Amino acid sequence: MLPRSVLGVVALAVLVMVGCEAPVLEPQVWTRECSYLRSCAPQGLDVGVAVSTAVLADPAAREAVLQDASVITPEWEMKMAALLPSRGVYDFAAADSLVRFAQGQGIRVRGHTLVWHEAFPPWLESETLERTQALALLREYIGRVVARYRGEIAVWDVVNEAFDAQGQYRPSPWYRWIGPEYVEWAFRFAHEADPQARLYYNDYDLEWGGPKLEAVLSLVRNLRLRGVPIHGVGFQAHHRVDHLPSSAQWADAFRRVRESGLEVSITELDIRVPLPLQPSLLQAQAQGYARVLSACRAEPACVSFSTWGVGDRGSWVPGFFPGWGGALLRDEEYRPKPAYWAVRNALADPRKSLEMSAADWYYRGSPLSFLSVNP
Ligand code: G3I
Fold it and tell me: Ligand 1 atom 39: the closest Cα is on which residue?
């Protein structure tokens, strides 16, 4: 007896060949009863979204966050330019409001991000600091911010994007003032301010392998050898639907981080699609999301899976990548897209490793063209 998944493909292929539309089939729902993402996530895996105070002011977005997230990441409100907009003057109002919202709903908060070359305060950008001055400022800033949320923020992206694509340190202000040791000091200062917080290095394009991943692995191994408190590596995972890492590439990169003694999180996943949105590409996007989640679920050290936004409305993608958009699980009105159901089913599936084939996914009347996407 052929397995159901093969029969599914054959049935759909036959129907298309005789000119029928693929049958209207319900998304395949797994046995475990669950509704939205948060209730479908397996024990030990956080699922979340990036939010802003503006997004949370929208009732539809707020409802979606409550349905989907056990962790939220402030998209802007905890960056240095937001928290220290002028010399010596901290502004915690927006960050406080997000932490209060999360606490009221039993949602964890991922602090993002203490040290980054972007979202750097303009008043500081033009400074030239001596090494000791820069270290004192770094200690004061990280100490002030992390201590404020001690016991309330479970995990911090301590350093974000320290390396370029060639695995070289970016010439950020902190690098210029302190040297490469700024990374170590950032982690030490964060741990000093909240010894319970999980401390991450976060970056993009690590999953492809290559010089940036090698530089990150060398860094984290070196930090651990010297007893510097670091707990995980965040994979931002900003991708395009027609150029996605293979399951093997995800698995290999995750394994190498685990073998370095650290946990793994998907921190900012979005999979952009060319505009205007076409159903076949939305199916391919669904497969792409399922692939990333499957790789995370198959990796024992993968503890969190977040997308970079609640829905397509307000996503950073269209402004940054003209002609691209539709990158999130929910659309402009925060309604679930095919990728949402693919993620929900992959979360709910009791099998640990979910090697998804196109045949495993039935969609309402979708053309078979998505079958051609790189499995
Ligand atoms: O500049 C104003 C500021 O004056 C005002 O107080 C604030 C009020 O909300 O808005 C600020 O506007 C923009 C801010 O987003 C909020 O929308 C900033 O100009 C703009 O630069 C900022 O862009 C963010 C960007 O990081 C830079 O911080 C994007 O929303 C955010 O999606 C993007 O996220 C990054 C991750 O942090 C790191 N990984 C890559 C990812 C995408 O670039």
Answer: 236
Beta bridge partners of 304: 46, 265
Catalytic residue among 75, 207, 263, 268: 268
Q: Which residues lie across from 160 on neighbouring strands?
A: 202
pLDDT at 209 over 80: yes
Token pair for residue 169?
């340190």
Cα–Cα distance for residue pair 54/311, rounded to 1 Å = 13
Q: Give me the catalytic one of 75, 161, 207, 299.
A: 161
Q: What atom of ligand 1 comes closest to residue 320's alpha carbon?
A: 43
**Do residues 328 and 310 touch, judged by C-beta distance below 8 A?**
yes
Residue 204 Cα: closest atom of ligand 1: 39
Q: What DSSP element (H or E) covers 271?
A: strand 263-274
The pTM assigned to this predicted structure is: 0.88
> Cα–Cα distance between 108 and 102 in angstroms, integer?
6
User: Pseudo-torsion of CA 308, 310, 313, 315, nearest 10°?
Assistant: -10
For 48-81, the pLDDT digits (tens) are 999 999 999 999 999 999 999 999 999 999 999 9
User: Is 125 one of the annotated active-site residues of the chain?
Assistant: no
Residues composing the chain: 375
Residues 6+ apart with CB under 8 A from 1: none
Closest CA to 244 of 168, 313, 339: 339
**Do β-strands 46-51 and 71-74 pair in parallel, antiparallel, or remain unpaired?**
parallel
259 assigned to active site: no
- The token pair at 103 is 């606490």
Q: Dmax over Cα atoms in the chain, in whole Å?
A: 75
Asked if residue 92 has its Cβ within 6 Å of ligand 1, the reply is: no
Write out 169-185 in H/E/C secondary structure: ECCCHHHHHHCCCHHHH
